[in-house]
């Protein structure tokens, strides 16, 4: 998964963690709390606060204990709540720690750990988001519909339809 960033859902002003399927077309929107959204956005943008935030502290703790963050996996959606696993290695030992996706991603973005989501989760909760080109084409078609008269179709006299160069 690729971290697209934090978006704000209007009109509720609720932060959404937006992940995109790597090399794919599906997005995974996860509604999160403001403190975690801030922590993710700051790290994603390369901004280091003067004093460490909670996720900075956790990252330092992980590193000082000799562990590495191997990956973050958003595993499931159960009862409207997303779940994730934070996978750590200490020497030859691998530990899987259950986590909120927002906390796991906040740590992953600080440690450059890869993000994953199960295929089943993407099938269940993944969404397709239209890109700007699609939106522009829809807007041009709407403008065409606003200008056209139904009688133009009967006579064949219309010239400036969608997809033309005029």
UniProtKB/TrEMBL annotation:
GO terms for molecular function: nuclease activity. Pfam families: BFN_dom (PF02577). InterPro entries: BFN_sf, Bi_nuclease_dom. Residues 1-129 form the BFN domain. This is BFN domain-containing protein. The lineage of its organism: unclassified sequences, metagenomes, ecological metagenomes.
């Amino acid at each position: 998964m690729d971290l697209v960033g934090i978006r704000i859902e209007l009109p509720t002003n609720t932060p959404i963690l937006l992940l995109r399927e790597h090399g794919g077309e599906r997005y995974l929107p996860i509604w999160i709390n403001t403190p975690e959204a801030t922590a993710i956005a700051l790290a994603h943008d390369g901004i280091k606060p003067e004093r460490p935030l909670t996720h900075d502290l956790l990252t330092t703790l992980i590193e000082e204990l000799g562990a590495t963050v191997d990956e973050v996996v958003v595993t499931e959606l159960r009862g409207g709540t997303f779940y994730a696993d934070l996978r750590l290695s200490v020497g030859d030992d691998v530990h899987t720690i259950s986590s909120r996706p927002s906390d796991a991603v906040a740590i992953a973005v600080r440690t450059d750990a890869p993000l994953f989501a199960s295929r089943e989760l993407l099938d269940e909760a993944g969404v397709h988001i239209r890109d700007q080109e699609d939106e522009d084409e829809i807007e041009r078609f709407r403008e065409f519909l606003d200008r056209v008269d139904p009688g133009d179709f009967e006579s064949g006299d219309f010239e400036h339809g969608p997809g033309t160069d005029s």
